[in-house]
What we know:
This protein has 294 residues and is mainly beta. The protein has a single domain (5-288), classed as Porin (Beta Barrel).
Amino acid sequence: MKYSLSVILSMLGWMNLMAQDFELAGVRYLNYPTTKANDTDSSEFSIQEFGGFFNIPTILNKDSTSIMLNGLGYAQLRINTLDNPVPVDGKNIILHSVSYRFSFIRKFNDKWSFIGMLEPTLASDFKSNLSSDDLVVQSLAMVSAKINSNFLIGGGLAYTTRFGDPRIIPVVPIKYTSKKHRINALLPTKLVYAYQVNSKVDIGFKAIVNGANFNITGYSNDLAEINKINYTRGNIGPVLYYKPKKIFSIELSGGLSTNRTFRLVDINNKSYNNNASTEAFFNIGIVVKPSTYK
């Protein structure tokens, strides 16, 4: 069954109105230029995050009420300088995450829709042979109800590493759109407000929690060998979106990164928490996604 690109983009645009934003492809870079191991420590290090992804949509039925997306993603976390929060010989720690994402979106009627997602993820420093400890299968299942032409709300469950270690959390999708205003949230991990200045520029506010669970090799502290890092942080601040084309968007944001935790887990499953200081961050991203404005 073949569909034109315009039909697929139109359907994804509808899905963006009915559920969470679906991005077809993108790259992002975040920089935390100065970080202290904690608020009272004078030692400093820096952190950079880089990631890229793409999703391929497929319409599954004749009435275009079901869409499947298959995608791949890569992310890298780099911790620089000798004064880093993880015991290591050398100046840099480089951690990697490679994921495959399968998503299924079903429109039951004009009001109700369902989203399901499975995301097997390998997260490691890749310094030794891969094992089951490198793999976590993140997942999401939620339903949403379109209350009126502008407002949607729903609920569901997610199994995620956004708070560092894998855990099950309740999620609440919320979307509000009007001629100039847009709110897009997946509580408790994401909240975005944007105001449309003109057809090409949106400005607003963004708060997001993200994290990962990395399996590592060859690191130790004074007590035991460390084999996992649970990393999490919350970023909050202003955001600007520039859209030179209808489905192409450049995102610039900055602000404060807070609640930053490096939880180290040793081979005996004992954990050691390191809380980095609240510091500034800068983010630039380029994404391709259907427009959500009417």
